[in-house]
Amino acid sequence: MAKENKSVKNFPNSRSIPKLRFPEFNDEWENKKLGDLMTFKVTNSYSRDNLNYESGTVKNIHYGDIHTKFQTLFDLEKENVPYVNEDISLNRISEDFYCQEGDVIFADASEDLNDVGKSIEITNLNGEKLLSGLHTLLARPQKNNFSKGFLGYLLKSDFVRNQIKKESQGSKVLSINVGRISNIHLSFPSISEQQKISEFLSLLDKRILCSMKIIEQLKTLMKASREKIFSKKLRFKNENNDFYSEWKSTKLKNISQIFDGTHQTPKYVKKGVPFYSVENLTANNFSVTKYISEEVFIKENNRVKIEKGDILMTRIGDIGTVKYIDWNVNASFYVSLALIKSNNDNNSKYLAQYISSDKFQNELWNRTIHVAFPKKINLGEIGECLLKIPCIEEQTKIANFLSSIQEKIETEKQILEKLEQQKKFLMANLFV
């Protein structure tokens, strides 16, 4: 990506010229209302009950899928789209109302302001028939104004998204209609420059998607490896090529100490002692986002503090997410987390991996207080959960094997985060 970024140049901030631009282009961009550039076609109101994923002759876009899974440039060959049930007659639907390549589909409703008016551009129909369905707006651009693929990105630029948010209406559920979305302004360059922008962003999207798939594949590998190892379908051997001694069953409280964090939300400072909560463990990348003062840290940590080799686990809300602390740190934490300090007879990395296994997680779930909101688990119940403990040599081999996969996952997450930051920057600067 670094080489590609050199192909764009900086421009002074202007209403008709973007901040970043490919060097061969100098003309100002046009600015017109969306309603003057696109016509809207009739959509249907088929609910999920009218759709299926097994069979049919016509596929249908449901607005919920635009919110959750479809790519900006929609390729029907690569997306999982439901069929309209075959017992529903489509005779009254005009051929002109079927989707065409280059069409844009907006989701006209959402509970989230950031999602109202979210859109996809249809770039490949794969020779199939497709309809735009419930809570969608189907817009067809006039010919010769847009290159295929450009509108998908243009409609997700900051300039356009901010206009759509302002035009949306409602309180609990936000919506936007044809009249209001037709009033927003679109700024766009020549066809050749459009092609350059869409090709550039499409390459970045493919790399992001590739990174996401790698992460999912590694997570699947980790899950399968844990299941085989902790069910003893996969065993490690010693230097004599013999299996290690039999595993012992024990409760977590018998091999560790378990603590909760402060029950008081502290006053945060810009720089100081790291302070962790559920948000840190459930984020894509574990990082320090909040700090407390040294004075508060000393006062709160007369009892316990986070140190290298400890295990943090969420115990409120998203219960059971684990983070092994493998760096030198003196830190504090909130009551939403449990701090597990292993005794010296066991490998803490092994314990962290076992706690993350399905078997242990299922026991955590069964011991959770389900009537509470958010759901929570008491420290005593965490301590009652059972583990299988091999000898320390086998613990170490298991921990090293699983940790190597975890490290690859974390590395790929960091790459994904950088790619997403890069795309965010480009979306803010490649468009007017």
UniProtKB/TrEMBL annotation:
A Gene Ontology molecular function term of the record: endonuclease activity
Keywords, sorted A to Z: Coiled coil, DNA-binding, Endonuclease, Hydrolase, Nuclease, Restriction system
Any one GO biological process: DNA restriction-modification system
Coiled-coil residue windows: 402-429
Domain Type I restriction modification DNA specificity span(s) in chain numbering: 26-219, 245-421
Family the entry assigns: Belongs to the type-I restriction system S methylase family.
Protein name, entry field: Restriction endonuclease subunit S
